[in-house]
Amino acid sequence: MPDILKTIEQANRCLSILIDPEKMEMDAIPAFAKAVSITIHNLKEKLQIDQFYFFVGGSTMENVNFDKWVNKLKENSNIPIVIFPGSHHQLSENADALLFLNLVSGRNSDFLIEQQVRASNKLKKSNLEVVPTGYLLIDGGKETAVQRISQTLPLPQHDMDSIVNHAYAAQLMGNRLVYLEAGSGALKSVSTDIVREVTQQLHIPLIVGGGLRTVQDIRSVYDAGAQMVVVGTAIEENIKWNG
What we know:
The chain is of the alpha/beta class.
């Protein structure tokens, strides 16, 4: 089993492809895995990516056998699978790691501690690599599923100090990663000024996702200091997307 956190820490540039099982039938996984391998090859060359991952999860995950879905993906790809959970129900021993998220940008106790407590009993006996991750929802210009489900407001991008302080607090709380998320289908991504300022305050890797639709968008985020970028909607809409 790969040491996911170690590979992220040691890599210069990581890229994660976010997949929502609610939006992909299990029967479609083999074709997806085959097609996305070409996309991965192209992006590796264009962006000098060191490590690729699949982030798997969603806000609700209704009518999906999550464990079987993850296993099907694992059978069809050798890319490490990291669970990006929307709730404590989204656990699977077929994955390689779990982002143990705490929504530090909100004040809803359900996503600060309650979901984590509910997951903890299962994780006591789990072989998953658990990576504590401070999760910050940043305003991406539209209401997101995360906002609706968590009943929390995103941090406004004009309030740089608040975003930096939240990220730094997440580090002080012992998180091993910080994730700045503009949300699925965001109209605007997290600004490079924010990425640059947050990176300067942290000594742990920074993940940035939401609203990144071109190679230049992604390159700018890397250049600003992010160690990992997450792409979801662009590939979801066009499996052959390469920026």
